[in-house]
Amino acid sequence: MTNTDHIYNILQEVPDPEIPVINVLDLGIIRKVEFVNEKLEVTITPTYSGCPAMNVIEQTIREKLISEGYQNVEIKTILSPAWTTDWLTEEGKQKLLKYGIAPPVGSSSNKSTLFAEEKVVGCPQCNSNNTTLVSEFGSTPCKSLYKCKDCLEPFDYFKCH
Amino acid sequence: MKENLLLDYLLQLGDNALVLGQRLAEWCGHGPILEQDMAITNISLDLFGQTRNLFQYAAKVEGKGRTEDNLAFLRDAIQFKNVLLVELPNGDFGRTIVKQFLYDAYNFLNYTALLNSTDKQLAAIAEKSLKEVTYHLRFSSEWMIRLGDGTAESHQRMQTALDDLWMYTGELFEMSEVEKELVKTGVAVDLEKLKSDWSKKVREICDEATLKVPENGWMQKGGKTGVHTENLGFLLADMQYLQRAYPGQQW
Ligand SMILES: [Zn+2]
User: Could you say which of A48, A141, B143, B190 would form a disulfide bridge with B97 (CB–CB 3.0 to 4.6 Å)?
Assistant: First the structure.
């Protein structure tokens, strides 16, 4: 079988190991799926250079494809164009919100380097916009830590990158 | 010959990221508050990621079977070509921030210039890294201001750190022989061209932080030619211990 649609269906079942409610397609890190001669090539791109999840993701994709009968698989990694949060799908953003992580606000094209205006990030628990940034660096490289001033819950924000 | 130059250049870039990342990792579990502990170790992780990209490419360019791990764990101090600034001890949190800021301001400009490198893979690594370094610079700039324009005690400590570290900033713009050659083909960055933007940035933040930018006096150098301070040896002994004591050991 050389149907790439089938491959995409399989990839839907490969979760992000750190945020398991979204899969690698939601995350937008799959750049290309193609059959080259008899070999299946899947091209992925890292979210962050030091993201420790990338090795796990690569391994899970490989195992999943092999278990579905694709023995000849190569996982390639490319760095350019660099991943940004714009690659997250709409569906992915909705899943994040439901899971309690505020999805990125706006586009990543804001290039200002210092004191970028603080964005209005809605609280995933109570929808309030009365929130404040606690730290740019959160529990994983891709998240910042926020706090809701209304319901007082701290929450993760998938930072715009 | 050309390959060797590229290899040396990649190692130089990677050594800066690796050594600074290792220094920052020393803060793990020791940050002044939890959020800053996580911030510093996140930055460390970014730097290790950048090191991996650079060393993986270096290993490929060399093509002699060495891996990224060999390059990190099996070279001696004299073979490291990082600038002296990144190997200096952390000191207190304020000193760590000053060191980080002076380097981030340089690193941001360097990666921005590398986006136009004629070496496509290097430009791709720069594109990826720049996104992360942008966050680093924002973090260290904010803390420069907060602590510089903070209490009398924090101000004094920041000013002292800035005065002490200043003599290590000249080397950031010192061109190595490798860089001079690779600038001709558009692979490497002409550091001379970054200097005025760097000075501008440093002055802007220091002004806001009420810190006095030191006069340019005697500048310390040597890291880019492998002549290091005694600090690097201790850092490597710590970092390389496992692979040295148990060669080939894996997780
Ligand atoms: Zn809330």
Answer: B143
Distance CA B41, CA B131 (A): 17
Model ipTM? Answer: 0.79
Predicted structure pTM score: 0.90
Identify the closest residue of chain A to B47 by CA–CA distance. A50
CB under 8 Å to B15, separation ≥6 — which residues? B80, B81, B82
- Cα distance between residue B63 and residue B51, in whole Å: 18
With b for 16 or more beta-carbon neighbours within 10 A and e for fewer, the B4-40 pattern comes to ebbbbbbbbbbbbbbbbbbbbbbbeeebeeeebbbbb
Query: Which site among A114, A133, A158 would you substitute to test the B interface, given the most B Cβ atoms closer than 10 Å to its Cβ?
Result: A114
Q: Which residues contact B32 (CB under 8 A, 6 or more apart)?
A: B93
pLDDT in tens, B105-148: 999 999 999 999 999 999 999 999 999 999 999 999 999 999 99
Task: For residue A125, give how far its alpha carbon lies from the nearest alpha carbon of chain B (Å).
Answer: 22
Closest by Cα among B127, B137, B139 to B50: B127
Domains of chain B: 2-245 (1.20.1260.10)
Q: CB–CB of B137 and A114 under 8 A?
A: yes
Q: CB distance A80–B135 less than 8 Å?
A: no
CATH superfamily of A4-83: Fe-S cluster assembly (FSCA) (3.30.300.130)
